[in-house]
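4.2 Preliminary Data

To establish feasibility before requesting continued support, the project team ran the inverse folding procedure on a target of 125 residues. The structure was first converted into the token representation described in Section 3, and no sequence information of any kind was made available to the design step. The complete token record follows.
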């Protein structure tokens, strides 16, 4: 499976590329960057913030895996009761993530519409 960013230009800020619960998941990791979290902890934090809405742990796990595969998060395996657990910590802070989103979008535009993208960028500058 290949993780991807989907850009929704009708939204503002991080919601252009993240659902509300995905943003909350990243924010919960950005708040304590040195202290990694397992998916259960992230899920508990997200559900606490989004009450009465709830997000499944499976959705959180899949999102964290996608973010790790994109290089946004670090994921390490630790031995625990009942097996191994993945501990996620941010590889990028919020500012670095925003730059990553901008770079990813511009690179995709340059691959698909190189001349048009250059023209627009020149007009903006």
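Position-by-position output of the design step:
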């Amino acid at each position: 499976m290949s993780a991807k960013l989907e850009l929704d230009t009708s939204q503002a800020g991080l919601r252009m590329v993240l659902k509300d619960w995905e943003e909350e998941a990243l924010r919960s990791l950005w708040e304590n960057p040195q202290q990694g979290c397992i998916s259960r902890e992230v899920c508990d934090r997200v559900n606490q913030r989004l009450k009465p809405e709830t997000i499944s742990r499976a959705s959180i796990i899949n999102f964290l895996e996608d973010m790790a595969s994109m290089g946004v998060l670090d994921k390490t395996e630790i031995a625990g009761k009942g097996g191994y657990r993945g501990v996620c910590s941010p590889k990028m802070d919020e500012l670095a993530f925003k730059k990553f989103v901008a770079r990813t979008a511009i690179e995709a535009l340059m691959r698909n519409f190189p001349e048009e993208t250059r023209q627009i960028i020149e007009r903006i500058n």
